[in-house]
Protein 1
Amino acid sequence: MKLLRLGILPWIAGAALGAPSYLATPGHWIELWPEGVAGRRPGGPAEVIVADGRLAHVRTPKLRAFLPPAGTACGTAVVFCPGGGYIRLPAQEAEGDFERWLNHLGLAVFDLTYRFGDDGPDAPLRDVLRAIRLVRAHADEYGVKADRIGVMGASAGGHVAALASCYFDDPAGRTGAALDAVRARPDFAVMLYPVITMQGPYVHKGSRGGLLGPNPSLEAIQRYSMELHVTKDTCPTWLISTQADQSVPMENSLFYYAALRRAGVPAELHLFEKGPHGFRFTDGLGPTSDWPARCEDWLRFHGWLPAGP
Amino acid sequence: MKNPRAILGPALAAALCSSPMLRAADPQVIDLWPEGVPGLHADATPEKTDRGGGISNVNHPTLTVLRPEAPNGTAVIVCPGGAYLHLSFQHEGLVPAKALNGIGVTAFIIKNRLKEYGQPAPLQDILRAIRLVRSRAAEFGVQPDRIGVLGFSAGGHLAASAGTLFDAPEGRTGAALDAVSGRPDFMMLIYPVITMEAPYAHVGSRDALLGKPATPELVRRWSLEQQVTKDSSPAFLVATEEDKTVPIENSLQFYEALRKAGVSAELHAFQKGPHGFGLNPGNGPTSEWPARAEDWMRFHGWLPAAK
């Protein structure tokens, strides 16, 4: 455990010094829909940065690439979907903790600024599938392997990751663009305290409202309750939640895991005790705080990270 | 804890594997029922030990004490698996006990009654074991409020029955020790048998514990996911998708019940590892479960904080 902690140290130190190492290769923005945003509804609310510095009402979805320092890339990429209850997302500056951690491991990170429900409930799905297709189509350019592109999401971003995991072949994800021909299935998914269900007592109502609006139909609720849509082709998945999460009940992870299990999809689930919703890299939460090491173990086990020393 | 074989001294391993008789220098063995085994069969035949360290036909339950060099006051009673037919006393008894010694825990391996008696004899044995260790805590150098159980497979069912049915009338025998709490302070369940209900029941364990055919009342009583209350012991669970013998749903259902009852619990559902992997290496992240258990014990204060 001590050694693992030391392994994580460099990127934590970077954060503390205010000199994140990833800035050696500054994150650059990538337009997701250069041909025009798919399914964009005319009018609607403007994209504004609210008081806490986050973005409300994403109208122009985009990607921001954070590539590992030259010579350290392991060939694996992750499309990262931040959380925010389908009502907010980080604006110009990512917090940088996930990016630093993954870059330190040699992964290329692509932060996704995805739409909420403003353009209809399929907008986030379209955005995440386009993101995966884009990274895959340009894999060589980014120094990643086309068959090692995962999706990672926290909280409502976990729901976006689940959308990609289950609906990678859904007609709603195709827009008639040439890129439709590129495979959109993520090769793996990592979900932290994810929103999964849109029904029953364990729903995160805020996320449901943000994606489906105030009075969703039963049909919509079922379509976006992702525990109902896992198939044998859903990608291998790693999940973590905590008992102490008062926002998104851990049952979201538990039910998604049970669905993966029924479908025979390889998956690893860790349910810890301590840690409020959105704990990210908070220290002092007991075994929960070591989740990055658990996630690395799993990525290594599957060969998405090179074998340890 | 990386390689159990490296932990278990070759001399000790040889002694324990080659001979069922423990010598004076070997670990202390305590009779669980000095006043006489409750319900002892008059026609009891001798216990059997196989060459792999497996024990069956248990009539005289015992605790084997393995003391650490530097005890930290925590005790764990180890419950070997074996479908309530036999006890995997080496692989799921001595090996984890030595590993526990390595982190300062005083280990007690239970040799409990099995199929020959059926329920509730195994529950009586494990509760007696906990009561005995608790009542003699000072003698063993352990704290009476730091007595846990660690169970593998059917031993996980035994450990979980202690963690849920510690107050059950079936577990009392009228002895003075009944007055001592039989509740374990924590339970660690590794690929445990939990349910006796179809479709996830391990049929071998069910038949051995409940007999054939079992009444629906018996099935419910010993389906431990149905016996969880808010007072059940905090739990640590490990199971794998690959387990073809005891489906991981046993752990998932038990975890869900603990969660509903508001009991602290940690669950690790891993991919690789056939049933009975014990402390074997080579199963990817699964093989690191002893480190996860250690983290969990430390988190709860059952192990001293890391330096």
Protein 2
Amino acid sequence: MYKVMIIDDEKAIRGLLKSSVNWELLSMQIAGEAESGIEAVNTIDEIRPDIAFVDIKMPFMNGIEFSKLAIKRYPKLKIIILSAFNEFEYARQCIGIGISEFLVKPINRKEIQETLYRIKTELDNKAAENTEEEPPVMTTTTAEKIKEYLNTHYTSPDLNLTSTAMVFGFNSNYLSRMFRTETGITFCDYLFSRRMEKAVELAKKKTLMYQAAEKVGIPDPNYFGRCFKKYTGKTYSEYQKSDE
Amino acid sequence: MCGKSGGKKHGGLFAKFSSYPLVKKIRYLFLFVICVYLAFFGLVYVFFIRNNLSDYAEKKNLNTLSAISGNLTSEADRVSDMSILIMTDDAVISYLKSDAGNYTKVAKESVNTLYDLMNVFEGISSIYIFDNNLNYVSASRSVTTVFPRKLLTSAWSQDMIDNAGGYIITVNKAILGENGNPVSGDYMFRTKLNEPLITFVRVINDLGTQKPIGYLAVNLPLTILGDTYEDHVEGDSRFGYLYYDKYIYGDDLTAEFNLIPDHSASHKQKIVGTWGNERIISYYRLPGSPLTLVSSERFYAGQVIPTETALIIVLMIVITLASMLLISAFISFYITKPIKGLVHSMDAVARTGGLQKSKLFLPDDEIGHLKNRYNSMLDEIDALFKELIVKEKRIRNDEFRALQEQIKPHFLYNTLDTLAFMASEDGADDVYEALQTLSNFFTNFLSNGSSEIPLRTEVEVVKDYLKLQKYRYGDIFDDEYVLQDDLLDFKVPKLILQPLVENSLYHGVRLKGEKCVIRISIFERDKVLHLVVYDSGVGMSKERIKGILKADRNDDSFGLKGTIERIRYFCDREDVFEIRSEEGLFTEVDISIPLDGKK
């Protein structure tokens, strides 16, 4: 099974994509969705997709910026760009950054299926040569150092599993696994709770939500809002009201 | 000119002259020309006029001297005439031949003859006739002492003998001591009053044998020398006589005489003294005598340049200066002033950017033509501007039309209706509702291609637009409408509200992450229609507002800028909007359109 991720700011488009393809038949599954580039950057390390549909025009981080980041972290990732017919200016910037396919909205079911089939073939061919190397051993002190690094850098939106792995010289899979073993909590959860602790603090200070979002390293306020609700059980404004 | 010659010597001077204004240049040029004029007159005076003047003055001086000399000669001729009468007198000849002594009859007769002649010839002091033994007879007006031996022992004696009958002129002048007796001096005769005498002496020859038979001496008072030049004394001219180069009579000009270096010539002249105070000094040797006439007279221009000539020269200089002033005024009036005016009006164009023409009144000459060409150039530029504006308007119109024609509305409407029907058949009420909204939106959006639509329709477009956007993005905002009903029929350019609302949604609301309000208000205040789009989104910084107003066609935010441009065009004025915003709180775009009484 290949994992598919859909990144688009319009719920309807995401729904349309999901329902217009028989995923089982292509031995694929929808592993996750994201409403913005920011959200995708924060969840991609958990989802670990093989294929990603990326809308070219999104607020906070557009499809091209996201694709550049994602390909750097996952060079084998297949990216399919979704673009409206008048967004040629954006489309031109896609050349040469490693994007696999390019689809023009409105979405045409037949075209999507052909594209996905083409990608599946490529992935099948490559699967055979796929081996992974194991890097040096990680100790408890290293895990502490990583925690410390996260504590000081979590406000940066560029901070994530892969970037941290690169700083400490580990493979990101290995780092993720060992971090959990050493600390009893996943890397993503640790980063998430650090950010949310700060968010709660900011909410108490009456900071506007979109400004708080930027300050904790999640510059998409919509995604930040959902994260906040997940963490506290209340929306940001509800939390602020109840705090009074 | 003067700048150029000076420029070679000092590097900066020519550049400095070049940088002067035209008027100043011309003034300096004239100053230079006047200097050249004066220098020219100076040179002409020194090298030509002055030379002529001094030549003339010297000639005149010489004439004077020779006239004076002539006076003395005529006196001598008179004496000579008289002496001939004496020498041909029988009594005198008998006396001289007789050797008889002084108390004879012939001696007496001779004396009578002498007295007779003295009565005829005036101004003679005394007459003496000596025989070869130096016995003598005489006639005298005053008591005179004679020293006969001196006749043959004086400095001039040999000259007298050599002259063989011609007379020579000598002077008797004794210098007296304290006791009244002579102590020195060259004298043969001496009057009781010691007046200096001028003496004409000659040898008397026998008419037959031409052998000397005696001597004749005629004395005249020295004052006759004064008579020779008294007619020529004018101004401060001075005359004097020298005897053997020593002062003897008149003004003592020995010092002046010695200023002339060489005395060998019979006469000589010299100009001495400083500029403006010059004198002509000259001497003139009287022929056949040891007397020298010396003169000193003033030399000045007025002496020789006639007043009329001087007047003409002065007049010429004045006329030249006057004509230069006239030319200067001419150049100033016809050239520099008009150019200055023209430059001034060109500056005004450069400063203000307006194409106002030069209103100078100029004569119909080259500069006038320049002004006319300049004005017609401005006209041409103005015409080009207008043409450009017309062209630009036409292009915009064409673009808009082309955009509308790209859409074929009927096919779209019909398809949407079909889809709505299908949804309704299947009981999908929300799909039906969405399709109806879209259909409405397009109908109002296109408005059959009219470019101006009632505000009411524009509001409908906005409502449908926001409803459709809610389908896409979910319930992220509430839309509110505060409308003044009587304004809704006012016609405005199509799609002036929708782009503002779109701007609010994409640049305000969606970035906030919280539910926002978009409020459209339409009202009239002070005869101005206000269309206000408010959103409680993230707001805009001042930089962001500036950026939006500078956006070009390809930018995301061109919608707002383009709309503002269209409203400016519609109202034909610049001041049509205001953006109020507070970062993190709200943005409010306020479009104002003057109503001018129409609704």
